[in-house]
Write a structure and sequence with these properties.
Elements: E1 4-5, E2 9-10, H1 13-26, E3 30-34, H2 38-51, E4 55-59, H3 61-68, H4 78-98, E5 101-106, H5 114-131, E6 138-141, H6 148-164, E7 168-173, E8 177-180, E9 183-185, H7 197-207, E10 213-217, E11 222-223, H8 236-249, E12 259-261, H9 269-277, E13 280-285, H10 287-303, E14 312-314, E15 317-321, H11 323-326, H12 328-349, E16 356-357
Parallel strand pairs: 1-16, 2-5, 3-4, 3-13, 4-5, 5-6, 6-7, 7-10, 8-11, 10-12, 12-13
Antiparallel strand pairs: 8-9, 14-15
Helix pairs in contact: 2-4, 2-12, 3-4, 4-5, 6-7, 7-8, 10-12
Bound molecules: zinc ion (ZN).
């Protein structure tokens, strides 16, 4: 099979669906990196350029607020909406400048955060009217804290609206363990960490007639990086979910579901390969890229410590200026480089490097 040809800019609609199918056939997946501002967006796009593969750029609710400015009033999710819209426009512009295709997505949106996604959909509808394409490629609703019935019902309502502007909806079934962005699932009942294939089938039946979905199914995956503990990763749950939908609904393809791997940080290469072989097309990575950004900056601060105590005066002389060491660009670029290298490793482990043509 030839490499999939993609246009630079934001991948949406049918092209996105074609991309998911290609990933499943090729047994590759794309990293979905959580970004918090222009610096992390730029690093993500650069990594995609160097890996010759598209990247999924996602804003969480907290990341959107941060992008708008941490001190902006967030009443009725106004800051999160503004930050999410601004981030999408920045990412689109820089992706086009680099000649890179990206998928724009928003991460976990629990029931109480729905006004955030409402605001983004409104902006997406306006952008669609203006350009014929949505602002974001997809949004995620995480209603895993609600009952399955309510999860599916609310998801259906949102998907009806998203389908009209060629957007995809990511849903969560079962709970991702660990803690991220203020959502703490570290104490959750172990059984919930493993999605039941019956639940996946129920969601498939209710939602696929309405629009296109991706499914974050839980197979013991956790947010954050921890010492190996009592939760065991069971990627075979993904395999069984695909098999159940394929067998019960007699789908043309053996892997009818587009699956999402949350909590990818800290995963072993063989676990990643196995999950991808079962139809994972999106691999969320956050903690590892946070570390990749912070670690080189810590080293810079340590190395140049004597030049960072005041604006004037260092070991070279009491009257020597420290301007070039103080300039945040001097060390933020090191964080960006760290993220680029970490994401390039992710592309390789996901078998995505050089699989695309753009
Ligand atoms: Zn997640």
């Amino acid at each position: 099979m030839g490499k999939l040809k993609l246009k630079p800019g934001v991948v949406t609609g049918n092209q996105l669906l074609e991309l998911f199918e290609y990933c499943k056939e090729t047994k590759c997946a794309l990293p979905a990196v959580n970004v918090i501002g222009s610096s992390s967006v730029n690093a993500a796009i650069r990594s995609a350029r160097e890996a010759n593969a598209p990247i999924i750029i996602q804003f969480s609710n907290g990341g959107s607020v941060f992008n708008a400015g941490k001190y902006l009033d967030n009443t009725a999710e106004k800051a999160a909406i503004a930050g999410g819209i601004a981030g999408a426009h920045h990412a689109r512009m820089i992706a086009e400048a680099h000649g890179v295709p990206i998928i724009l997505h928003t991460d976990h949106c629990a029931k109480k955060l729905l006004p955030w996604v409402d605001g983004l959909i409104e902006a997406g509808e306006a952008w669609y009217k203006q350009t014929g394409a949505p602002l974001y490629s997809s949004h995620m609703l995480d209603l895993s804290e609600e009952s399955l019935e309510e999860n599916i019902e609310i998801s259906k309502r949102y998907l009806q609206r998203l389908a009209k502007i060629d957007m995809v909806l990511e849903i969560e079934l079962g709970v991702t363990g660990g803690e991220e962005d203020g959502v703490d699932n570290t104490e959750v009942d172990n059984a919930k960490l493993y999605t039941q294939p019956e639940d996946v089938l129920a969601a498939y039946d209710a939602l696929t007639p309405v629009g296109n979905i991706t499914v974050a199914a839980s197979f013991g995956n956790t947010h954050g990086v921890y010492k190996p503990g009592n939760v065991k990763l069971r990627p075979d749950i993904l395999k069984h979910s695909q098999a159940k939908v394929h067998a019960d609904r007699k789908t043309a393809t053996a892997k009818p579901l587009n699956l999402v791997f949350h909590g990818g940080s800290g995963s072993a290469p063989e676990e990643i390969t196995e999950a991808v072989s079962y139809g994972v097309i999106k691999f969320n990575i956050d903690t590892d890229t946070q570390w990749a950004f912070t670690d080189p900056i810590k080293q810079y601060m340590d190395k140049h410590d004597a030049y960072l105590h005041s604006q004037i005066g260092n070991p070279d002389g009491d009257d020597k200026p420290n301007k070039k060491y103080i300039d945040p660009r001097a060390w933020m670029v090191l964080g960006e480089k760290g993220v680029i290298e970490r994401l390039k490793r992710a592309f390789t482990e996901l078998n995505a490097t050089n699989q695309f043509d753009f």
